[in-house]
Protein: Peptidase M19
Amino acid sequence: MKKVTRLSLATFTAAMLGLSANVTATEVTASERALRIAQESLIIDTHIDVPWRLINDWEDVTKATQRGDFDYERAVAGGLNAPFMAIYIPSSYEDNGAYTLANHLIDFMEAMVYRAPEKFAIPHSVDELLAQFEQGLMSLPMGMENGAPIEGSFAKLQHFYDRGVRYVTLAHSEDNHISDSSYDIRATWGGLSPFGKELVVEMNRIGMMVDVSHISDKAFYDVLEITQVPVIATHSSARRFTPGWQRNMNDDMIKALAENDGVIQVTFGSTFVTPQANQHRARLARLTREINERLGEGTAAAQEAIARMREENPYPFATLEDVLDHIDHIVELVGINHVGIGSDYDGVGDTLPVGLKDVRTFPNLIQGLLDRGYSESDIEQILNGNTIRVWRAAEAFAAAQE
Ligand SMILES: [Zn+2]
Structure:
C-alpha cells in the first residue's frame, strides 16, 4: 500500500487539471477507480530520460516545471513512483569520454536527490525500492543506456553497479564494442562482440540486468543464449505494428523473451507505436524529393509546394488506444507476465501519443486497461510485478554466486 504523505488535494487537483501550457494535450480523463489504482499502486517505468534532458536544459524538477514530460509534482499526480533514470550516453562517446560522461550524469542524479531527500531516493535493490515506496518517497533507480562507458572493463561495470546502476542497455544507435545496434546497418559483430559475450556473463554474476532494447536481432538471440537470468527490454514495443523496424521486437523475439521469463516494457513514442508515425519522416522525405524533381530544387515554387505539403501532412500522433493495442498483442502472445511499461518520457520529443503526453497521464493508461477488461491484479503485473520479478531474479542469481 502506498502511504500518501503526498500533495494536498488542492495541489493534486491543480496538477491533475494540468495548469500549464499544454492543458488539453495532457488531459486526464480517467475514472475515480483508475485514479485510485494509480495512486495506490507502485508504478515502475523503466525508461525516462530526465538526466539527459536536464543536462541540456536545466530545470528544478524537484518542483513543478513548465517544460519536459517529468517533474516531481506531475509524477505524483500521475501516481508514478519509480521512474528509472536513463544514464544516456550518445553513440558518439564510444572511445570518446563515455566513462566520464556517465559518472557526470550519475553525479547529477545524486545531486538532485540530495537537494530533495524528502521526495527522492535512489534504490540499490528491490527491497530498498519497496521500502522507499512504503515511506512515500519517489524512487529513482538508474539504468545506463549504452554500454559505451564500460570501455571493455569489468572493473568499470562493477563501478557503475556500485554507483547504483541496475541495468545496462548494451548499445544505442550505433554498433559499439559490446554489441550491434538495431539502427546500424554495418552489423559489425554479427550480434554481440566477443567482449559483449563475456560481459553478459559478468553482468549476470554481479546482478546487473541486461537490457536488450536497441540491440540488433542477432545480438538479442546471442544474449538469450548466454544469459542465465531473465532479461529486460526497457523501452521497446511490438514490431507487429511497425513492420520491418528492428528497434521493436517481433513476435518470435517476444516469445523467446517470455521463455527466458523476461519482460518487454512497452514504450510510448508514436514512432514505436503506429506505422503512420513510424514512416512519417521517410514519407516527408519522399514527397520533398518528388516536389524537387518536379519543380527544381531550391526554386521558389518548390519551396512553396514543400511548405504546403508539410502543412497537409502533420505529424500523425498515435493514441493511447494504439499503445494499448501493443499491450494486448503481447498479452495474447505470451500472457500477462511478460509486459510492462518504459515510456521514454523526456526522450522522444513531441511525439508522444494523445492521452499519454506526460507523467500525469498514467491514470489514462490504467483506465484504458480497465476498459479492455484487465483485472486489477493484471494491471499490477504490468505496472510493477513483472519488472520486480526480473530484477529480483538478477539479484538472486548474483547472491548465489558468492
Ligand atoms: Zn532509447
